[in-house]
Records
---
Amino acid sequence: MHIEILVEDLSGKVAMDILVPKILGDAHTFRVHSYRGVGRIPRDMRDTEDVRKRILLDNLPKLLKGYGKTFAGYTNNYPAAVVLVCDLDDKCLKTFRAQLYGILNSCNPKPQARFCIAIEEGEAWLLGDLPAVKLAFPRAKEEVLNGYVNDSICGTWEQLAGAVYAGGASALSAKGWRVVGAEKSKWATEIAPRMEIDNNQSPSFCYFRRKLRELVGR
């Protein structure tokens, strides 16, 4: 099977490129597409007028329609699916899922798709494996890591920054969003290879893992 994975930023792509083979093995193919932010679902689910901005949710109606048409041309011997991976942030999960399925159900033909939402943010999936965090960052602050509640709405990336970055989230934020983004990619690069994907404590990561395996029949 082939899986197209859509993520909202470069750190998400770094993590997916490492974690997906851990989940699926080598029998399937995948490609990860990173965007320049999550954005928002367009009003009335209309296609965005400027796809060059590469904002994930802004482009989602057009993307899913395109995948529907592309996948319809594949034979049964070459099944394919698209998987959206993005942060919940401060959205209502139930409402957000309903909006995503509204877009999917408006597609004709409709692609096989799964929507996997990191709660609250993608760093929750890294924090779901504290031993991996400690292996990657031996000097990480134990009291910060041990105080984290999996998939809690707590400012997740800030929590990880507080554990592994000198000066914590405030010092990192002061350097600007480009530096924040680069640091998030570093966290993914260092932590993801050390993760035991079947022992992860993040419920939203476990949902992602399960949906990938369901797609390929595992």
---
Amino acid sequence: MKLRTLLIPLSLAFGATASADAPKAKDPSRIEITVTKRGFNPDSVNVPAQKPVTLVFTRTTDQTCTKSVVLTMDDGKKIERELPLDKPVELAVTFPKAGKLGYACSMNMTKGIIVVQ
């Protein structure tokens, strides 16, 4: 009887610790895009229309021309950001309507697509 009384509080304590250490759920409004020697990964992302999202670009190689990213919005406006090596660059944006938009390196050789739904 005494052993059972001790085991229940211990299991509750360990259970609480395990759940506190559990990984957090992925934030759907934050989209990670890595620049590798093969290009953007992923090279196509889906985002909701009329909701803010944060595109996080991280360049992990020096073996490509992709030292910056250029995002072309549906109104033709271009947003360009430098991509320092191994440092995440956040680009907060809200896409007003559904459609397909492009992002690319400044030389337009490495490309990706944003599908706004």
